[in-house]
Amino acid sequence: MARYTGPVCRLCRREGQKLFLKGTKCFTEKCPVERRAYAPGQHGAAGQRRKKASEYAHQLREKQKVKRIYGVLERPFRNLFEKAAHQPGVTGENLLVGLETRLDNVVYRMGFASTRSEARQLIRHRHVQVSGRTVDIPSFQVGPGDEVRIAPKSKDILPVQRSLESQTKPSSVSWLAVDEKTRTGRMVNRPTRADIPLAVQEQLIVELYSK
Q1: Using an 8 Å Cβ cutoff, are 68 and 84 in contact?
Q2: Which residues, at least 6 apart from 114, have a Cβ–Cβ distance to it below 8 Å?
C-alpha cells in the first residue's frame, strides 16, 4: 500500500496551517508552522514575495489540504470524488462524507487511535473488526448500523490505551456511539456536512476536478 512516509510537519508548513497530523503532540510541542510560517524547500521563503496566487492555485491547495488531513493519495481520492459525483446531493458534501466514513477515519473519530495514520496501522495489523468480521482495509466504507470494535485480543494494546487516556472527554461525534470500556462503537447514522468539523471549501475541489 502506497503511503506518505516523510515528515508530517512539512505537510502542515506547505498548507500554511496546522493539520493536526501528529495528534496530541500538535498541542504539546512547538509547531514548525509557528516557527517558520512559509512553505518548505529552498524556494519557500522566497515564495512569500511572489505575485498573488491564481484561482487554480487556490483550488489545488484546498484539494491537497483535504488529501493530507485524511491521508489519502491522489488515485483513491479521485475515485472517491467520481463516486461522490454520481450520488444524489451536493458533490462536495458527498466527498467529505465518503472520507469521514472510511474505516480509518471512523476508528480515529471513536478515539481508538490518536491519528488517522495510527488508525490505519491498527487496521492493517488486523486489530479492528466491523460487525464481527476482521477488516484490514483502511478505505473500507462503514455504513449506518455497523459495529466497529477493537478485536478482543487487542483491547489493551498500548496505542489504544494511550489514545483513550489522552482524551479529556469521550468522543462527542453525534453520528457515532462509543463505549470506551468495551472498545466498541457504532455508526448511528451517516454524517452530514454540519457534522464534519473541517474548515475547508469543498466546492473548490469540485471546481478543480470539473475543469
Answers
A1: no
A2: 23, 24, 108, 159, 162, 163, 166
Q: Which three cell numbers stand for residue 86?
A: 454520481
Q: Which position has the grid cell 462527542? A: 172
HSE-CB of 158 using CA atoms within 13 angstroms: 0
The SS3 assignment for 104 reads helix
Helix (H) or strand (E) holding 178: strand 176-179
DSSP state of 52: P
Cell reading at 45: 521563503
Question: Which of 105, 95, 11 shows the shortest CA–CA distance to 61?
Answer: 11
Q: Report the DSSP beta bridge partners of residue 185.
A: 148, 178
User: Which residue carries 491522489 as its cell?
Assistant: 74
pTM: 0.80
- How far apart (Å, rounded) are the C-alpha atoms in residues 37 and 82? 34
Name the residue type at position 198: L
Amino acid at 2: A
Per-range mean pLDDT, top range of 7-21, 48-62, 122-136, 158-172: 122-136
Alpha-carbon Rg for the chain in angstroms = 18
Give per-residue pLDDT as tens, 68-96: 889 999 999 999 999 999 999 999 999 99
CB atoms within 10 A of CB 62: 20
Q: What's the DSSP call for residue 132?
A: T
